[in-house]
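can u do me a favor
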């Protein structure tokens, strides 16, 4: 199981939000590229980038910062989400050296777009499913849909989606622990690998998730915890590797 550092981009800075609220942001760095290098030096095997402005604007806003990170670490898999609503944007990110694009809002509102993107860019498309009380949220988490998160996952099972990033909004940025049960339910709902996000606070969260790697939990995204020091990235990845090897 991969432990994936999150770099959330807002106005060119590296920030973390609480429950997806833009007004509840904490700035951790004015240099996202330097922050990326820090996590790479600590053993990151993949990076998770989010264009927060883009998620609300519906188009890339922090693409320059994303491109700088990709240039600095050309061998490192990078996944990017936020404001990806058309094929041209996907092409631009892939051309810039990004490995995976994350489709969130558009996956709910126009699921056919996901299938089209998977055909055009095989192996490069991840679906981001952000949920509150089991229902999918869209538009930077500003809107709550009537779509069940597990049903949305099932609908993409034959589309060629590389992974699903499942975020429990209620836990995100709150340092209250990951929702293992909901993540496991998501992983078991389809054959698509699931990357957990939201609430990962301590090494115990990593240990709990890694025990379910055989059930389809392939990764864990951590943000505030590694920035505030409640999780050491290198220790977390070692623990994840150990948890998987014990199965």
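np, heres the sequence
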């Amino acid at each position: 199981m991969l432990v994936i550092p999150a770099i959330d981009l807002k106005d060119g800075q590296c920030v973390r939000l609480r429950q997806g609220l833009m007004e509840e942001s904490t700035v951790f760095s004015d240099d996202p590229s330097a922050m990326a290098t820090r996590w790479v030096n600590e053993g990151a095997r993949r990076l998770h980038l989010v264009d927060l402005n883009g998620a609300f604007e519906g188009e890339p806003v922090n693409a320059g910062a994303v491109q700088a990170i990709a240039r600095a670490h050309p061998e490192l898999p990078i996944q990017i989400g936020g404001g990806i609503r058309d094929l041209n944007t996907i092409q631009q990110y892939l051309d810039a050296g990004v490995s995976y694009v994350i489709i969130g809002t558009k996956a709910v509102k126009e699921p056919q777009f996901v299938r089209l993107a998977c055909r055009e860019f095989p192996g490069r498309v991840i679906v981001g499913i952000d949920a509150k009380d089991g229902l999918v949220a869209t538009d930077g988490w500003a809107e709550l849909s009537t779509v069940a998160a597990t049903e949305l996952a099932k609908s993409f099972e034959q589309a060629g989606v590389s992974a699903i990033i499942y975020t429990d909004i209620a836990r995100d940025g709150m340092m209250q622990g990951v929702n293992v049960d909901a993540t496991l339910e998501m992983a078991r709902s389809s054959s698509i690998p699931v990357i957990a996000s939201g609430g990962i606070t301590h090494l115990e969260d990593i240990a709990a998730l890694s025990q379910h790697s055989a059930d389809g939990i392939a990764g864990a995204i951590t943000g505030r915890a590694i920035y505030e020091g409640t999780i050491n990235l290198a220790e977390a990845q070692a623990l994840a590797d150990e948890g998987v090897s014990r199965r």
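The mean pLDDT is 89. hope that helps!!
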